[in-house]
Amino acid sequence: MKFGFKLVAAAVTVMCAGGAFAQKGETVKIAMIEGLSGPMANVGQNQLKSWQFLADNLNGAKNAAGVKFEIIGMDSKGAPQEALNTFKAAVDQGFRYIAQGNGSGAALALSDAVAKHNERNPGKEVVYLNYAAVDPALTNEKCNYWHFRLDADTSQKMEALTSFMKDQAKVKKVYLLNQNYSHGQQVAKYFKEGMARKRPDTQIVGDDLVPLGQVKDFAPYVAKIKQSGADTIVTGNWGADLTLFVKALNDAGLKLPMYTYYAGVAGTPTALASGGESEVYQIAYNHSNYAGVMGKLTGDYQKKFGDDFYTFSIYNGILLLSEAMAKAKSTDPVKVAAAMSGLKFKGFNGDSEMRKSDHQMQQGLYISKWQKVDKQNPYSVEKTGYTFAPLKYIDAYVASTPTSCQMKLPG
Predict the structure, then answer these.
(1) Across all residues in the chain, what is the average pLDDT?
(2) 56, 78, 338, 376: most buried by Cβ count inside 10 Å?
(3) So what's the pLDDT on residue 83?
(4) What is the pTM of this model?
């Protein structure tokens, strides 16, 4: 953790040094197209505050390009068609940069819309920063030069998670519970494939898909898990779909080790804490207890909003953009996209790279474990007295997965 802090501190020092401010004083507007209302609105609202908070903290002389980032939230209600309508409105208003993350359905629609718009409107190109949509198709068969993914995709996270789980001897009977759209379907798919290779003795005793954001009572699913004889749960659920699932587990008194993608996301930590001690793991690019720059940012965010800053990919997004703008000596999306493609920089976890072949961020990942705060891990998630403590760091090259992307270059 100290090593990670030194890298981030060094990056900030490099950014602020020298005469790299070719765009000093320019304002770069980013339209954040996200579900700011509806069942997952608490996550979208948190991320809008995160974008705006980080922009404020990394503006001007605090970023490599010396620019001012201005983030405007635009509500897509979490629906792909609404996201397309919102994108059109953003373009009409002159936005050249968009950001979105919650929901791969919306992400796939936006990526396609951005590619078509840019092909038809030379001189008005738009760059799409994807900070949380993790469908591998976005950087494989559906890859797009103008789309840049800041998060690790489902396959990367599952490669890391199954590498950890294969050494957990008590994992024998696994129940899969996921949301019924591309991300949830792929969590199940890649888990089965990964464990078949690494721990073929593991049994899948249940595999349920739930409609995204529509289930209000998970008690029937918990009853099925209990009946199945499962000793482990694996879920890619996020937002209300994980929070309500945890509440149903608490109500049933069912205590099983659970491996998750998004247990640290808005509302779920409070539900976990209300159930007392539980064995919960999270695979993510971050954990809750950074020192230095990231530790200060997470602490300041919680003080300001009474909420947690958990979408660290936004930090890397602002770093990536500003370093590319400094390299390109321009804020023109065409020049910035070319500079971002293949760019290596020091992110919050150290060495990071926006892979040129598919625009998938290459970065280290963490397995963290839910536990009570202690001297080594003092950050209280949602002020519960619990935290996600780093258990294992997986280097970028270990978590990396190959790509089938055939990148179509502009021009």
Answers:
(1) 93
(2) 78
(3) 97
(4) 0.90
